[in-house]
Structures are given as C-alpha cells and as structure tokens.
Amino acid sequence: MSGLFGRDFLDVADFEAAELRRVLDLAHQIKAGTWSGRPLAGRHIAMLFQRPSHRTRVSFEVGISRLGGATTTLGEQDVQLGVRETVGDAARVLDRYVDGIVARLRTHADLTELADAAEKPVINALTDRSHPCQVLADLVTLEEVGGPLTAQKVVYVGDGNNIATSLIEASARLDFPLTVITPAGYAPDEAVVARARSLSRDGDRVTITSDLSDLDGATAIYTDVWTSMGQESERQSRRKIFAEYQVNPALMAGAPKAVFMHCLPAHRGEEVTDEVMDGPRSVVLQQAGNRLYAQMALMSELFGKGT
C-alpha cells in the first residue's frame, strides 16, 4: 500500500513535496489512460456536503465509481452537524459504515474536528479556509500547458480567499513563484503566508501585493469570485472595491504569455469578462476536467488498496 494510505488531506501543506508529486504523477497517468486500477473496489465513501456543489460532487462521485467504489452523499439536512449531533459524534458513526469521508463544509474548524474524531481518512472538498483538491487540479493543468512548475510564475488576482491559501501552500511545497494581487485589506491571512514561508524548501517564492502591474513573466493569471459563499451581504461593497482588479483583455495584455485560470463558478462581468473567459488563452474547462483525475489519484492513495 501507498505511504499515503489512511492519511487525511485537509490542506495542500499536509503533504510533503514528494507526496504531492506522487499524486500529480498518478493523475497524469490516469488521464493518459496508462493506469486503470480499481483500488476502491469493495469500499464505500461518505460524501458530506454542507455547501452547494456542481464540479466537486460530480467529479468525486464519478471518480469513486471509476475506481470501483460506492458513495453515499449526505446533504446539510441529512446530518445537520452541530445541530442534531456534534461533529465528533457524526464522525464516529460514519466510521462504522464507510472507508473514507469527503467533506465540503462551511468552516475549517468543523473539518479539523471531523478529521480528529474520525478513524477513517478525510479529504477536504472545500472549506472557508482552503480548497486543496481544486489546487491539485490546477497543478495538473499548469503542468499540461506550461511544463515544470518551477519554470512557471502564477499570478493570482482578486480576493485572498481559500483558493489563494491553497495556492500559497502549493507554491511553498513545490517551489514555483506565486504573486497574489489583492486590494488593500483583502490579502490572505498573515498566518497562512507565514506558515507557507516556513515550509518553503528553496527560499520564499510568494509575493503579496496590491500592484496590478506586477505581471512580468506570468505564465498563468488566476482569479476567483470576489464574493464567496457566506459573504453574499458584502457583494455590492466588494464589487466597488474589487472593480479595478477585474481580469479583462487589458490586464491580460500585460501578461502576453499567460493562460487564464478560474476555479469556477465565475461571475461573468465581475472578476472576469466574457472575452477572457471564452478566449483562446482560457483553460478553465481543462481545470474543471482535471478535478476528476486529480481526485481519483488522491483517493487511490488515501482510500485505496494500493496503486
């Protein structure tokens, strides 16, 4: 069995560089059709979703099926974490039925409590703090379109949210340059940046700035929604604050060799224009498709019977 078998994956930084490399390499093999294992045969995975989901739910359910496993998907009304029962009780009950848990929860605190209480491995399918499975798919995409990560420069423009957190951790672990450009007051949490910098093997590769001209050498321009789930009451104020941080043709012209990335769903006309989203440099659908392969690789290693 893999040395990752039985491990949790709550954040990108939970894995060492070699462990991330193992998952990424397997994802490429699965997509290329050179690996066709079914390590989840006879295994059952619980999908615990508090938040709405399209790409995440479908890609996990399809991936589990292709790996030979079965799923039970539980929505917010099915479990009601912290209402009908505690997070810990829910985890200990699921341990009696399933071989692993994929959790898409509102708060990272609830996720860590779930993982601490559960004996079975837990995968973070999104929290308010991080979105590591999305970033695994992003790394697969970056390697497909640009080659080795260390030869690339990713520029993230927008809110310093969960995607920014996971990109920062990926940069620290895999040593690729990352610039995060946000309006003043919306940068990633300082503790996230400090932790990532402490993990870096080859010097600090992360730049945090509000300067929209800091695009030199970019191989990818990445953005996300300005208003995440749970921040709906701030949408109008955020639209004004973030307006100049829209990814549009003028901004992309400052990075002529960069592809455009977005984790989706996109608020067209806000963080990105149609011209960029649907343009020839956009790889957003490639990113979405790679969720399947990255997560299949991850689950093969954590939940499976060996690869």
Could you explain the architecture of this structure?
- By secondary structure, the protein is of the alpha/beta class.
- It has helices at 17-32, 55-66, 76-79, 87-95, 108-117, 132-146, 162-174, 190-199, 235-242, 249-253, 274-277, 284-302, and strands at 44-49, 70-74, 100-104, 122-126, 154-157, 178-181, 206-209, 220-223, 259-262.
- The strands form two sheets. Strands 7-6-5-8-9 form a five-stranded parallel β-sheet, covered by helices on one side. It has a four-stranded parallel β-sheet with strand order 2-1-3-4, sandwiched between helices.
- Helix 2 (55-66) links the parallel strand 1 (44-49) and strand 2 (70-74).
- It is globular, with a radius of gyration of 19 Å.
- It starts with 16 loop residues before the first helix and ends in a 5-residue tail after the last helix.
- The mean pLDDT is 94.
Question: What structural keywords apply?
Answer:
12 helices; about 300 residues; about 15% strand; 4-stranded parallel sheet; Rossmann fold; 2 domains; 5-stranded parallel sheet; globular; alpha/beta
Percent of residues in helices comes to 40-55%
CATH-defined topology of the largest domain: Rossmann fold
Mean pLDDT score: 94
The H-level CATH homologous superfamily of the largest domain, spelled out, is: Aspartate/ornithine carbamoyltransferase
Radius of gyration (CA) equals 19 Å
Please give the largest β-sheet.
5 strands, parallel
The domain count comes to: 2
Q: What amount of the residues lies in strands?
A: 5-15%
